[in-house]
Specification:
- The complex is a heterodimer.
- By secondary structure, chain A is of the alpha/beta class.
- Chain A has twelve helices and twelve strands.
- Chain A folds into two domains: 172 residues, Response regulator (Rossmann fold); 130 residues, 3-Layer(aba) Sandwich (Rossmann fold).
- In chain A, strands 2-1-3-4-5-11 form a six-stranded parallel beta sheet, sandwiched between helices. Chain A has a six-stranded mixed beta sheet with strand order 7-6-8-9-10-12, sandwiched between helices.
- The longest helix of chain A is centred in the N-terminal third of the chain and has 26 residues.
- In chain B, the strands form two sheets. Chain B has a two-stranded antiparallel sheet with strand order 1-2. Chain B has a two-stranded antiparallel ribbon with strand order 3-4.
- Chain B has a single domain, classed as ABC transporter involved in vitamin B12 uptake, BtuC.
- Classes of the chains: A alpha/beta, B mainly alpha.
């Protein structure tokens, strides 16, 4: 009996802790920024889409689409959720968004396979490794479930028109190499035209998408005769990234520019800003996270590459719907690349509902 | 303290010897040798960058959060238990602190709330272990998952920014002092190290902690409430993980939902490398600090020596392995000499 009472008491303590934090999150007034309407969790996305589907479809068949992202948390993912949710509302279907806690291909593949065994009518996947997802594509094909990809496509940089030959069934997002190439061109031509050397800071130097982006950056720099001092692994944690960038600056005191390959590159701007090196070192980051926007505003970051994550998920749902209703879809939707500089900060803040 | 130091006397009485008050014990000596060797080696290999005051200051700051968490973990491991939740508690209490601060709550209240929740989580884990008998490995793993999810729920997956910085927690934990820009959090870490090293080495509580892990049956027979000692250890580990989370938020000025993910491995590695015995009954706070310093020094030096990114993780693993081997050999030699 005592044990039962103890169990109940402990469960209550945990529930109170979680609800306390939950209240802080919703009512605390934190300015989380992110995509303009990037609010809510995957569950909320599903619910909202369901509600709207009931009112809009007028009795037509209601499809249920799965969306698997590379990591379930973060502002980037919230933009995906919002894009998928809005598209679902538009066409009157359900969406379920999920993904691994951290960016791990094997875990993502497992989630995709599990989802393919459920009652979904189509699946959109952030596929950061072409070979890694091939078995998933085969499984989807055997079950007749449309499989489209978005955000990441791991392809051959010398073949930008055929980024995902293994899928061949629709991709929405930037062409990684081309996108990073544009970013690097903007950075080395306009932002840092006189630098002699630079560092690359990457969350994972072995992740295919990071490798491809780094390759594009190197190609641009090499063509301009700018020397790469080294590649710095900064991991998936801002504290760890901060330390890595600090060490890299100590090792390379004469570095003139640092460019990132992913949204953890915010760590570069954090260190450069905190050390008062904003005038000395030019910084290029990926993805307008709230913290990165703040650093662009203060001049600690000079360029942010925006991949339009909202549109990627949005068009993926449209693609799936098109495959279900017409048997075809857009093969390659380039959601474009936008380069944010400090003079565009006000527009950026409006787009991402950033209040500081 | 080794098991040999707890001896059963005649007539059913249990006599527990206190550890001798040497300034430097063999646990620490072995791992200190490793740190000194690494320091000399890296100074030779990167003379212009590694031994500079600025870089050494960087290393100290970089090991602060892990060291603070590892203090609590050392207590837990000495009691022959394990805690796999510090990374998630770090993230969760950091989220609570960041969200409340961003919401305009008084800094003191935010700080107390974050630490109270973190300590509470630790105590819940400890209660499950001591009262219900759930293995610590399982319950702390569950807690880790529950509160990692809690971070996502609380932050709704967003990076938390807009945290006001003109307040005492930021001044105490997240500022840089003087012309040297000395990180204030290092002072906090040093204070905690000193306080808990004294507690572990010179107080009745520390003595009972060793006794609980060294030979739980002998400790209980001698009247030590081992359940309470373990509960304290888990509560302390939770509270210090929460403090580390707050320190991180004050330093970075923001919180990302993945904050602290995977830190439990660094924490456990620091403890073990520092000579803490996973089987319990052995370990010191100073040893743990040296263990954390070794990991920090290796990570730092590999970058300074321009080691290729692909080789860095493997190199850290190899050096830690060598370090543990050297430490074990030194300890064996020391134990043999004592015998």
């Amino acid at each position: 009996m005592r044990k039962k009472i103890l169990f109940i008491a402990l469960a209550l303590v945990m529930m109170v802790s979680l609800s306390f934090a939950g209240c802080s999150g919703s009512g605390g007034g934190a300015e989380s920024g992110g995509d303009s309407a990037a609010e809510g969790t995957g569950d909320e996305a599903t619910t909202a889409a369901e509600d709207d589907a009931t009112s809009d479809t007028g009795g037509a068949e209601k499809y249920k689409f799965g969306v698997v992202v590379q990591a379930i948390s973060g502002d980037f993912t919230n933009s995906f959720i919002k894009g998928a949710e809005d598209a679902a509302k538009l066409i009157g279907c359900e969406v379920e968004v999920t993904g691994p806690e951290e960016q791990k291909i094997d875990q993502e593949v497992s989630i995709v396979e599990t989802m393919l065994e459920s009652d979904i009518d189509g699946i959109a996947v952030v596929a950061g490794d072409k070979e890694g997802f091939r078995s998933s594509v085969d499984l989807a094909e055997s079950k007749g479930i449309p499989f489209v990809t978005f955000n990441m496509d791991d392809g051959d940089p010398n073949d930008p028109g055929m980024k995902h030959p293994g899928y061949g069934i629709g991709y929405a997002g930037a062409v990684e190499y081309n996108f990073a190439y544009l970013f690097a061109e903007k950075f080395f031509n306009d932002i840092a035209p006189d630098v002699k050397n630079y560092l690359i800071a990457t969350a994972d130097p072995a992740l295919p998408v990071c490798v491809e982006r780094a390759t594009a950056i190197r190609d641009v720099a090499k063509a301009k005769g700018i020397k790469e001092l080294e590649t710095v692994p900064i991991g998936y944690d801002f504290n760890e990234g901060y330390s890595a960038v600090e060490n890299a600056l100590t090792a390379n005191p004469d570095v003139e520019a640092i460019v990132g390959t992913d949204h953890f590159s915010q760590s570069i701007a954090n260190v450069v800003g905190d050390q008062g090196l904003g005038d000395k070192i030019k910084v290029g980051c990926f993805d307008p996270l709230p913290g990165t926007i703040a650093r662009l505003e203060t001049g600690d970051c000079d360029l942010i590459a925006d991949q339009n994550p909202y549109l990627m998920a949005y068009y993926s749902i449209i693609n799936l719907y098109s495959l279900k209703t017409n048997g075809s879809c857009a093969y390659n939707i380039d959601t474009g690349a936008f380069m944010w500089t400090q003079d565009l900060i006000e527009d950026l803040k409006v787009k991402y509902d950033y209040k500081g | 303290m080794s098991n040999e130091e707890i001896t059963t006397a005649e007539a059913g009485q249990v006599k527990i010897k206190r550890p001798r008050g040497r300034a430097l014990r063999f646990e620490e000596f072995g791992v200190l040798v490793v740190l000194v060797i690494l320091f000399i080696a890296f100074t030779i290999m990167a003379p212009s960058t590694f031994p500079t005051p600025a870089n050494l200051m960087n290393i100290l700051r970089q090991i602060t959060e892990v060291s603070i968490m590892a203090i609590g973990a050392t207590f837990v491991i000495i009691t022959a238990e394990i805690d796999l939740s510090p990374g998630s508690i770090y993230g969760f209490s950091g989220a609570v602190f960041a969200l409340m601060m961003a919401g305009g709550t008084a800094p003191t209240l935010c700080f107390i709330a974050a630490l109270a929740i973190a300590t509470g989580i630790g105590l819940v884990s400890g209660t499950f272990v001591t009262r219900i008998g759930v293995p610590a490995f399982i319950i702390t793993l569950c807690m880790s998952m529950i509160f990692r999810g809690g971070v996502y729920i609380a932050t709704e997956g967003h990076q938390v920014v807009g945290i006001p910085k003109d307040n005492w927690p930021f001044a105490l934990f997240g500022s840089r002092l003087g012309d040297f820009r000395f990180p204030s959090q290092v002072i906090v870490m040093a204070a905690l190290i000193i306080v808990f090293a004294i507690i572990l080495k010179n107080t009745s509580l520390g003595f009972k902690t060793y006794a609980t892990g060294g030979n739980i049956r002998a400790a209980e027979v001698s009247g030590i409430n081992t359940k309470r000692i373990k509960l304290f250890a888990f509560g302390l580990a939770g509270g210090l993980a929460g403090l580390a989370g707050v320190v991180s938020v004050t330093y970075l000025g923001s919180l990302y939902p993945t904050a602290g993910s995977g830190y439990e491995m660094d924490v456990v590695a620091a403890c073990i490398l520092g000579g803490t015995n996973l089987a319990g009954g052995r370990g010191t706070i100073l040893g743990t600090l040296i263990g954390a310093a070794i990991i920090g020094v290796i990570k730092n030096a590999l970058v300074l020596m321009h080691v290729d990114a692909y080789f860095q993780t493997a190199t850290v693993g190899v050096v830690i392995l060598i370090g543990v081997c050297v430490d074990t050999m030194v300890k064996r030699r020391g134990d043999a000499r004592l015998a």
